[in-house]
Amino acid sequence: MFHLNYNHLYYFWMTQKKGSVTQAAEALYLTPQTITGQIRQLEDRLGGRLFKRKGRNIEATELGQLVFRYADRMFSLSYEMLERSEERRVGKEC
Q1: Distance, CA of 84 to CA of 50 (rounded, Å)
Q2: Which of 8, 20, 46, 90 has the largest count of CB atoms under 10 Å?
Q3: Cβ partners under 8 Å of residue 23, min gap 6
Q4: Which one, of 57, 74, 73, 12, lies nearest residue 38 by Cα?
């Protein structure tokens, strides 16, 4: 079994949360081309498209919606973990 590149997944997740590649790129301090390339690699790994064009915008495909639900849970938990560890660290300093 091949591994999953979590950076690719994170870039996809940020794009879906922010609503566009441009906004995700700005939030991540990357170029839109970098974000697009990383999402393409994730699509290759998963075997399907994650976004489709809708006019000038993009929207998640059915696969993209599924992947986003998992990624959202994963990254939400990771942010919660960081918050808890920060609270613990700050609590020890008092």
Answers
A1: 32
A2: 8
A3: 15
A4: 12
Query: Which of 12, 18, 26 has its CA nearest to residue 68?
Result: 12
Cβ distance 61 to 48 under 8 Å? yes
Neighbouring CB atoms inside 10 A of 69's CB total 11
User: Which residue pairs from 40-44 have beta carbons closer than 8 angstroms and sit at least 24 positions apart in sequence?
Assistant: 41/5, 41/8, 42/5, 42/8, 42/9, 42/11, 42/12
CB 19 within 8 A of CB 64: no
Paired residues of 58 in beta bridges: 53
DSSP assignment of 36-50: HHHHHHHHHHHTS-S
Task: Work out the number of other CB atoms within 10 angstroms of the CB of residue 50.
Answer: 22
Write down the pTM of the prediction. 0.86
